[in-house]
Design a protein that fits this description.
Layout (H helix, E strand, L loop, with lengths): L9 E11 L9 H17 L1 H5 L3 E5 L3 E6 L5 H17 L10 E14 L5 E4 L1 H12 L5 E4 H10 L7 E9 L3 E8 L20 H8 L3 E14 L4 E12 L5 E9 L12 E4 L6 E9 L2 E12 L6 E10 L4 E5 L4 E11 L8 E6 L2 E5 L10 E8 L8 E5 L1
Parallel strand pairs: 4-6, 9-17
Antiparallel strand pairs: 1-3, 1-4, 2-3, 4-5, 6-8, 7-8, 9-10, 10-15, 11-14, 12-15, 13-14, 16-21, 17-20, 18-19, 18-21
């Protein structure tokens, strides 16, 4: 039996790439520049993560360096956090001009070991290239990461979800689009959204026009639960069951969320699962404006023609201080229902659900079985389903 033989100079590693922000400032003296480079090198050398890891690849870049950790996945992020903490201590008593500010990019992938012109061993390849590209997006103190590395870390431990945040789609060299994550917490990273290469383009309209001919929703169900009367906090769950009409399998779904309050993607705590409760990955965020989000989810397995009982559930939390919820439908659905739950001891009177269809606005009657207990649940169903461009508005 023949096996594919991998090149002997191929190495898989987790990469940390950093450089000094603002070092090319023409008003900065050569002495100041060289001092900052020395500080960067010394502080990284003093980091426990750097000293404790024996198997690593190191590539100085003049104003920074790339480090590849061969035997682990977590070391680049650990080094980034430790490095920034030490830099913060160094910068405490320095003038703004003398402070050392860095940006960091991380990725995991392959590189090839090669000899340079002097015969020294160095490395190059997609692993280090993407770490460099991601770093280039950032500003001072950003710790940015490719989605593949972030998702791998989150699979290791749920604790990484607390510090790894999906940001947005960005365009890097050669018009390549990638979803970038940011690592930040109380004493490390930069929570601001980088602007370089940011892609902010709505795709949902043209996507819906194309896909309405390929699939339709057998059922859409909205479940809204009012949890906090003071803040009017609503927990949303949207159930989608779809039927694929085309011969082409469906691998990904582009969808969106609209809010009545300004929220970032991260603040909505968006979670997507499939029909059996398994988490689905968000592989693209192309719109993250204050009141609207568009993102692409990747299915765990494709949906084939006429396959039944397939779909996804989107969960998120948001406030509705004006006491209403609206949604415009961009896809057809054969069945639609809306369930609204609120604390029974609240002063909420009977909520109203309105449907706008072909510019005609009607009030929908709820089902007679209103359940009472700690929560009152009211259910509406639309027997004729939902058509593209219909909208609903719930008021309470």
């Amino acid at each position: 039996m023949n096996y594919m033989k991998l090149p002997e100079n191929l190495v898989h590693a987790a990469f940390f790439f950093t450089d000094i922000v603002g070092l090319s400032n023409p008003t900065m003296s050569v002495d100041t520049q060289t001092t900052k480079i020395r500080v960067l090198n010394k502080i990284i050398k003093d980091c426990k993560t750097f000293k404790n890891e024996s198997q690593k690849l190191i590539l100085p870049t003049g104003d920074g360096m790339a480090i590849g950790f061969v035997s682990g996945l977590t070391q680049p992020l650990e080094l980034a956090i430790e490095f920034q903490e030490k830099l913060e201590q160094y910068n405490k008593n320095k003038s703004e001009f003398d402070k050392v500010r860095v940006r960091i990019g991380c990725h995991v992938g392959n590189v090839f070991l090669v000899e340079d012109i002097l015969g020294n061993m160095t490395f190059w390849g997609p692993g280090i290239i993407l770490a460099h590209r991601v770093m280039d997006i950032g500003d001072a103190w950003h710790i940015l990461m490719t989605a593949s590395m972030a998702e791998s870390l989150i699979e290791l431990s749920e604790e990484y979800k607390k510090i790894l945040h999906p940001l947005h789609d960005y365009e890097i060299k050669h018009e390549q689009k990638i979803l970038v994550y940011s690592a930040h917490g109380e004493n490390f990273g930069n929570a601001k959204l980088p602007s370089k290469g940011l892609i902010e383009k709505s795709l949902i309209k043209e996507y819906s026009e194309e896909m309405n001919n390929k699939f339709f929703f057998k059922e859409i169900t909205f479940e809204l639960r009012l949890d906090d009367l003071d803040k009017q906090t609503i927990h949303h769950e949207r159930y989608h069951r779809l039927i694929n009409n085309s011969e082409e399998p469906i691998y990904e779904i582009l969808t969106g969320i609209a809010t009545s309050v300004e929220k970032t993607f991260r603040e909505l705590n968006i979670e997507v699962v499939d029909e059996i409760g398994q988490e689905l990955k968000i592989v693209s965020i192309n719109v993250d404006t204050p009141n609207r989000k568009e993102f692409t989810i990747k299915l765990n397995r494709p949906i084939f023609i006429n396959e039944v009982d397939r779909g996804f559930i989107i969960k998120h939390t948001s406030e509705a201080p004006e006491r209403y919820f609206e949604n415009v439908f961009l896809f057809n659905a054969k069945n639609f229902s809306m369930e609204f739950s609120f604390p029974t001891n609240s002063k909420i009177k009977t909520p109203k659900l309105y449907l706008k269809h072909n510019e005609q606005k009607t009030t929908l009657d709820p089902s007679p079985d209103i359940k009472r207990g700690l929560y009152t649940q009211i259910l509406w169903t639309i027997e004729n389903g939902i058509s593209k461009n219909d909208s609903i508005r719930l008021e309470w």
